[in-house]
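Design review, sub-item: ligand-bound model
Attendees: FS, YL, KQ
YL presented the inputs for the zinc ion complex:
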Amino acid sequence: MNINFYNKSDEIMDRGLLEKKQLEKIRSLVNRALATPFYKTLLADVGIRNGKDIRSFRDYQQIPFTQKDDLRKAFPSGMLAIPREKVIRLHASSGTTGIPTVIYHSKNDIDNWTDLLARSLAATGCTEQDVLQNMMSYGLFTGGLGMHYGAERLGMMVIPASAGNTQRQLNMLRNFAVTVVHATPSYLLHIYSRLDSYGFSLKDFNLKKAMVGAEPHSEDTRKKIESLFKIDVYNSYGLSEMNGPGVAFECVYKTGMHLWEDAYFMEIINPDTLEPQPEGGQGELVLSTLNREATPILRYRTRDLTSILPGACECGRVHRRITRIIGRSDDMLIINGVNVFPSQIEEVIMRMPEVGTNYQIVLEKKGSLDQIIIKTEVHQGIFNDNTRELNQLSKRIAENLKTSISINPKVELHEPGQLPVYEGKAKRVFDNREKI
Ligand code: ADP
Ligand code: ZN
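KQ shared the predicted structure:
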């Protein structure tokens, strides 16, 4: 395997040295945070008046968590730690779960973030030979500009395509011999389903890799995209509160995402008790921005559920790996008392080869019971088959869901292209049950 490094000394380093650096960075992070009204109060409450008060990670872990709501309350600039004239950009989260939050960046912040993305892309084997078409939306969303800067820094040729307009995307893919795309997994599956109708075939392209992120997706969805396009697909994780993409990224071995621990201090907690999880345990990811100047954030509860993978990666990087995100602690569905994450449903249905590239989960109330309806597209060929076979397929999907995750759904099969498509993050779950 060909292993590329962007900055080898930062990627392969003694673990002890990394942790020593982290602790130093935590002390200066606390000092920067003390310049904001929000953290000044929060830290005073736990008796911290200077970074020097933090003598160990354990000391640091006595500081209360920061939550999305704190960022909202601090709107627009209660968490700004530097003079306004030192800020060169702001980004805001896409607001999947409510009012957006604003993150400010200094020149150094953009520079450091850009380095993390250059490092991430290099880890997947990208070089200046590559042409990247960035299908994430440009604007306040971080997937556009964030990835753009990182790819340019690595010397890749970048096409700032932004999201949407499938035919235009396909034209660019062909005309500029694009080798790498950055997109949501759902949009890539959609593009594939439209190839025929726009008169394209895989032979028209020179595509080698896709960087996918911004939404949860299963290992089977990755495999599906890889086998449909005959490319390598790499998982990319980030959130705007922690800059955006470039928080954790897969390397060529595709065995979990390296979380860049020289930029983010990572903890995994039990979302109910808020206690640290034992090593390797699954829980909520909590992150701190070790380098950021403009908007320092301490112990941020991401709501994303994952776990730290044991052992070292074959690539030799010191940065530990996390598993793919299985969902957000706030998106768990409770269906007739059974707890299910949408990602579990996706995992089961995407494993079935007959299932197409788009699906929806609809929840309704039927009397006092919850009813779950899985709407999924199937491949055209199957739709041309007789009704009996289609009925059998719905039955098999329902049975697989029942055996794997104990839900009893109604399954509706749709022809390709019938379910709505999203250019950004896909909306998969429609909960029409009455909220109490
Ligand atoms: P919002 O929180 O409003 O959706 P962001 O655009 O910052 O705003 O989205 C970040 C969130 O997107 C993450 O917290 C996570 O839930 C999800 N996400 C990002 N990348 C991935 C990924 N590779 N796998 C699963 N979920 C992801
Ligand atoms: Zn690796």
